[in-house]
Design goal:
Length: about 290
């Protein structure tokens, strides 16, 4: 089993597209260089921010290969493999070459809304199939079902290769229960950019961030200050980033962050249907916000 430290800043990479809809690998390479050179601790490839439901299997494999080659072992790579068909998820895990992958990030099954026993059984199958560590991903705003702290802790205690969770419920009481009762070697990171500072003040150990596509240096500094319990230095960064972190989710993800990345000259603002470009109002709002971030 590979060792992987989930603590710190992970960036949930977008997938960059040309206007015609095919993958823009030149811009993806530019984005990868942007975030690595700015100090993030690891990359998340094919997470929910990547628009992975719209990608073919061939495109997913091409993105993995390109990300591994471009990263060149400078930082670890976490790979998103999840879905609402357990057999299909297990099959994808078994067929994926994970020799260059540090861990798998696997989202709570969406749409069919399993109960807690179903969630436990799903992640049990994922853990048993994976040759690398597994990170759970709880995001009820996307999946339609919340994995409770009790279910998460049961998985954490029962499977040594389930090493942590990206917790994006936004439920502070649930987060506090999870942090209070988790095993010592189980890591909890934020999936909520806007709540990063308060969640880390409760004991979370980092973030998998959308904001970090655009502002990796600032997010990394915020996380590192909070890991050192330096609220005095972390708070101004949090306050500066907060309007941006809120704005990029106003019209859905990755709609806002792609608009921001175009404004910053990193990639074009192209998405795949059913997602469409941000409104002119949001685009203008982001231009103003970005101009005020140091």
């Amino acid at each position: 089993m590979k060792d992987f430290n989930l603590q710190g800043t992970g960036v949930a990479l977008v997938t960059t597209f040309h206007k015609q809809g095919n993958i823009d690998f030149t811009s993806l390479g530019k984005l990868i260089e942007h975030v690595i050179s700015s100090g993030v601790d690891y990359l998340v490839c094919l997470g929910t921010t990547s628009e992975y439901p719209t990608l073919s299997e061939q495109e997913k494999m091409a993105i993995i290969d390109f990300t591994v080659e471009t990263t060149a072992s400078r930082v670890p790579i976490v790979l998103g493999i999840g879905g609402n068909d357990t057999r299909e998820v297990v099959d994808r895990i078994k067929k994926t070459d994970c020799s260059s992958i540090a861990a798998i990030l696997s989202v709570v099954p969406y749409y069919n809304k399993p109960n807690q026993n179903g969630l436990y059984a799903h992640f049990k199958a994922v853990a048993e199939a994976s040759s690398v560590p597994v990170i759970l991903y709880n995001v009820p705003g996307r999946t339609g079902v919340n994995m409770t702290a009790e279910t998460c802790l049961g998985l954490a205690n029962d499977f040594s290769n389930i090493i942590g969770i990206k917790e994006a419920s936004g439920n502070m009481a649930q987060c506090m229960n999870l942090l209070a009762m988790k095993p010592q070697n189980f890591t909890v990171v934020s999936g909520e950019d806007a709540l990063l500072l308060p969640l880390m003040s409760l004991g979370m150990q980092g973030v998998i961030s959308v904001t970090a596509n655009a502002f990796p240096k600032q997010v990394s500094e915020l996380v590192n200050y909070m890991l050192k319990s330096n609220l005095k230095k972390a708070r101004p960064i949090h306050e500066q980033l907060l309007p941006f972190s809120n704005a990029i989710f106003e019209e859905g993800n990755p709609v806002g962050i792609k608009a921001a990345l175009e404004i910053m000259g990193i990639c074009r603002n192209n998405l795949r249907l059913p997602l469409v470009k941000s409104s002119k109002g949001l685009y203008g709002k982001l231009q103003t916000i970005i101009s005020n971030i140091q």
